[in-house]
Q: What sequence folds into this?
């Protein structure tokens, strides 16, 4: 059995008094490609933000890459994320006035990693956004921005890639191209992938599928945001 | 990282430009009020330099100084030329300059003096008078004009000049029409009341009055008197420079206690500052204005920077999400804020330099104030330092908030 990259036990998180996330046990082992699915509002993004350390203040145990995130100060958490985790945010989080290339370079720089122009060019090329590499992020289409965000995450040398709805704005071809590259990169460098999505088109390609709606006990209680008809 | 600062600034160029501009205007306003205040004081106290004692007939200290050097008011009584000669030969005295004031030409004072005026008279830290054009001899019926007088009257070298007895704007009934003077030269501007004077020799002044002086037994045509020595009896005051500074006070006492004629001697520097202190309320108002401007400017900078930084909250959150250390982000904000403040300050002073250059002659003409960017007054240095410190403080607020607020919140897209 491989080591767990993400391990949660009795994880409870609440924005207000009402918990939105209650997970008994969740484990993602090293090198696995996990898909966390579930309907809107079942806490997917919240869980993702907890994994990446963007969100804090949970109770229970959560270890990412063997690190107890709640034990770190916010600044150290940011540092930890930069060094070990590549995140594709749902909101992309590109700096709008920088070009795609500059966005990539900035992320590498902050993470303290070297920029390999050939590698980044290859990633951009594969994701079919090489032609907009010199354009500002704000000038790109929604889909292009999403691919730029994906390219940024893939360019980083991280042990864990977290992707929040990475294909939401992509057509079928581009979604396939992205997943292809994601899996290839992960396998070549022995990375762990956790994708959060309600898009089940590609579920067969993942070796671990977690239905959060079932796992999250908070949604089973009567809750205004729980269980909308899919 | 520096590239990021610039990219970010360029991205928000309009608001950045406006912020820098508001800083620039504040700096400009504060600095010009400061400079004018300082310039007014300097213009005032620089009126005379190197003159140790001003002496005249017994009168108040302030009137004596005002009519002798500022062309304000008029002497109540005269001092005998003999007294002047006595003190000029005094062993402690290095030089003495007679002044005879009482005539005017279209509102400008005519000052009778000796040709050694140019040699001894000093203004602003010992600067000498310089001739802008023409000659300087103060020969008979020759006049040299101060720069303001020349410009206002529109006289060039060689122009005829008709002098009036008494001081009035209109040509009086006492016009000395038979004795037209000629403008022989024009002084360079000094930025002091000196510029408003018309300078002639004592002899010319005496000759001008000779015709109208009924007391004189021998009425002579002035023209025919050209070669004869003119007897000078009265002047209004005289300036003294001593050889040794230690002699100033004893000499002053000696003049004040002169038994042959009641005289008053004053130290111009002391009386100047007395007058300035009397007008202190005006300076205090200016001071108050400049402090208010400073306060407004600091508030303006705070608001502008805070507003522009608050809108970049998400941007900062992204940097944090990428793993930038809060100190890095703080440095980023600081650098930006600092750049803005410095750019604003430089632009403000550039504005001041342009304004000073284009308004220079007007200011000198109407206010005897000369304006320049340098040197900075202590208040200005304080103000500039405050602006920079404030810009740093302002940057720290959002930097702290970025650190304190939950990162997830900052990453939300707000519409």
A:
């Amino acid at each position: 059995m491989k080591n767990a990259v993400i391990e949660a036990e009795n994880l409870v998180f609440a924005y207000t008094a009402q918990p939105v996330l209650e997970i008994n046990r969740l484990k993602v082992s090293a090198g696995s490609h996990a898909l966390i699915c579930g309907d809107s509002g079942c806490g997917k993004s919240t869980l993702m933000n907890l994994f990446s350390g963007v969100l804090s203040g949970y109770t229970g145990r959560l270890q990412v890459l063997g690190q107890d995130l709640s034990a770190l100060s916010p600044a150290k958490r940011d540092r930890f994320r930069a060094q070990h985790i590549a995140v594709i945010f749902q909101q992309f989080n590109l700096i709008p006035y920088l070009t795609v290339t500059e966005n990539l370079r900035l992320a590498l720089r902050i993470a303290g990693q070297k920029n390999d122009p050939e590698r980044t060019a290859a990633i951009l090329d594969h994701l079919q956004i090489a032609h907009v590499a010199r354009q500002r992020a704000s000038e790109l289409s929604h889909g292009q921005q999403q691919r730029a965000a994906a390219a940024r995450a893939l360019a980083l040398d991280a042990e864990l890639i977290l992707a929040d709805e990475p294909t939401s704005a992509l057509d079928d071809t581009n979604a396939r191209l992205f997943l292809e590259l994601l899996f290839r990169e992960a396998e070549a460098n022995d990375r762990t992938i956790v994708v959060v999505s309600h898009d089940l088109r590609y579920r067969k390609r993942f070796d671990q599928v977690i239905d959060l709606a079932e796992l999250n006990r908070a949604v089973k209680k009567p809750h205004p945001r729980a269980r909308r008809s899919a | 990282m520096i590239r990021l600062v610039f990219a970010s600034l360029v991205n928000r160029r309009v608001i950045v430009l406006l912020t820098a501009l508001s800083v620039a205007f504040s700096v400009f306003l504060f600095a010009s009020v400061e400079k004018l205040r300082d310039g007014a004081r300097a213009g005032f106290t620089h009126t005379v330099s190197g003159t140790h004692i001003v002496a005249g007939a017994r009168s108040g200290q302030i009137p004596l100084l005002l009519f002798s050097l500022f062309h304000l008011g008029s002497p109540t009584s005269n001092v005998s030329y003999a007294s002047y000669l006595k003190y000029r030969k005094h062993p402690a005295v290095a030089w003495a300059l007679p002044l005879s004031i009482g005539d005017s030409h279209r509102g400008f004072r005519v000052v009778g003096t000796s040709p050694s005026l140019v040699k001894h008279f000093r203004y602003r830290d010992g600067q000498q008078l310089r001739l802008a054009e023409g000659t300087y001899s103060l020969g008979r019926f020759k006049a040299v004009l101060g720069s303001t007088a020349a410009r206002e009257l529109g006289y060039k070298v060689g122009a005829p000049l008709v002098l009036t007895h008494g001081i009035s704007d209109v040509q009086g009934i006492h016009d000395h029409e038979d004795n037209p003077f000629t403008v022989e030269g024009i002084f360079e501007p000094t930025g002091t009341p000196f510029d408003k004077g018309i300078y002639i020799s004592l002899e010319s002044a005496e000759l001008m009055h000779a015709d109208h002086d009924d007391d004189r037994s021998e009425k002579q045509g002035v023209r025919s008197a050209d070669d004869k020595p003119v007897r000078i009896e009265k002047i209004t005051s005289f300036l003294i420079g001593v050889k040794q500074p230690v002699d100033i006070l004893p000499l002053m006492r000696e003049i004040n206690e002169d038994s042959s004629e009641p005289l008053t001697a004053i130290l111009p520097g002391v009386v100047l500052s007395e007058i300035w202190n009397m007008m202190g309320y005006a300076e205090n108002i200016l001071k108050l204005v400049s402090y208010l401007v400073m306060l407004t400017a600091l508030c303006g900078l705070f608001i502008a920077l805070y507003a522009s930084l608050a809108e970049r909250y998400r941007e900062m959150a992204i940097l944090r999400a990428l793993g930038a250390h809060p100190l890095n982000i703080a440095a980023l904000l600081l650098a930006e804020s600092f750049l803005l403040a410095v750019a604003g300050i430089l632009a403000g002073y550039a504005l001041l330099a342009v304004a000073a250059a284009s308004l220079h002659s007007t200011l000198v003409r109407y206010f005897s104030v000369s304006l320049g960017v340098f040197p900075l007054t202590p208040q200005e240095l304080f103000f500039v330092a405050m602006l920079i410190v404030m810009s740093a403080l302002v940057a720290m607020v959002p930097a702290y908030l970025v650190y304190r607020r939950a990162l997830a919140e900052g990453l939300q897209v707000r519409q």
Observations:
- The longest strand of chain B covers residues 93-105.
- The CA atoms of residues 58 and 262 of chain B lie 5 Å apart.
- Residues 212-225 of chain B have pLDDT under 50 and may be disordered.
- The radius of gyration of chain B is 31 Å.
